Amino acid sequence: MTAGVDPETEELLTLLEDEYARTIIVETYREARSADALSDACDADPSTVYRRIDRLQERGLLQDQQRLDPNGHHYKVYVASLEHVGIDVTEDGFDVTVEYAEEDAADTFTRLYEEFSG
Q1: How much is the pTM?
Q2: Domain of life, per the record (predicted)?
Q3: Rounded CA gap, 98 and 113, in Å?
């Protein structure tokens, strides 16, 4: 454990240290991506990418959305929730702040509609 860092912060920093997790966040920051697209971007097996997706979702750094393909099948895409991470050194150790992206009303409506109609 890093001195002056609580276990939850340590877990966050360890996750952000992971190259695959960082790639997933960057790839999903502006545009939703499927797990297959993320697997290609990471040059990793889908199972590896799904493990990182799960960890990122557990920490609230990634959200999934349901989409409908032209054949009527549902599939998931992923969007980064992470907007900013700040690390400050204090007398007591490190102070880590995390800012999350806010979903606008149109995106919220679309996501809820797609989830409800699925």
Answers
A1: 0.78
A2: Archaea
A3: 29
